[in-house]
Amino acid sequence: MRATERPAEPAGNGWPARLHVVTGKGGTGKTSVAAALALALASGGRRTLLVEVEGRQGIAQLFGTDPLPYEERHLTDAPDGGEVRALAVDAEEALLEYLDMFYKLGAAGRALRKFGAIDFATTIAPGLRDVLLTGKVKEATTRTAGQRRVYDAVVLDAPPTGRIGRFLNVTAETARLAKVGPIKTQSEGVAALLRSPMAAVHVVTLLEEMPVQETVDAIEELTSLGFPVGRVIVNGTRPPLPAGRVVTTAELRRGLVAAGLPADREIVAGLHDEARDQVVRRELEDSLRADLVELGLPLTELPLLPDGVDRAGLAALADALLKAD
Questions:
Q1: Which of 1, 49, 181, 293 has its CA 20 to 30 A from that of 125?
Q2: CA 305, CA 309: separation in Å to the nearest integer?
Q3: Is residue 279 domain-resident?
Q4: Number of domains in the chain
């Protein structure tokens, strides 16, 4: 399929938004999930943009590439002729672009960098940094060429749950404080997009107590601020244990002997303790899963990748996301 014939709608009925904001507690794998989602939504000849805004270069590390510049670049191909591009948004570069776009200060704006004026501006007005970052994401999401969207979907690897509400809401606060001018107009446009059906905020979690609690708190905050919450994505899930009781030490011993393995008392006791701990752990996971179900949001579970998040693992996650109802 040629680029000019790309499908007009994002892939997958379960992912109707055009801008997908992916957040989660640190350590839950939100960057891997964001990358897998960008790959999934690019399937079938579509083009997606994967954006990061925290300066960690997590996307480059995940794909084993050079650090991403402030420039949209081809990252990887997707099944059936799709393409994923990537962008690391830098606040300083975004400010220079902003000054050139709205105030025609291209050369003069670049000169400001030599005097530290840009650092000064983002220091005295910390919210300005997030306005610039989200403004660039909004521009990429709404950009058109030849009367169609440049990207079928944009996936934002966003700040973690502890900061996501403040990060997304800063444009609304800026629009309220600014009286007139391009800053007010841009802030209002970004705030409107983030609260529209075009956007969805997905929260990544693990079946562990702290990530689940942060997920519940983040969803409550996002909802109170008017942001459309999409899915709860449970990462690193394991297949269910067979139903029934924990095997006895006698059964373990017989099994080890039948397999020709050592079956002394210490080994059998260690295996029995491990089996019991697994049952307790799975019961806790079931309880936490029930807490997530009570949120009333679509729940998507991704498998634990025993070999880590390599390219094959990303493809497996992308396939699971694409099949989400």
A1: 49
A2: 7
A3: no
A4: 1
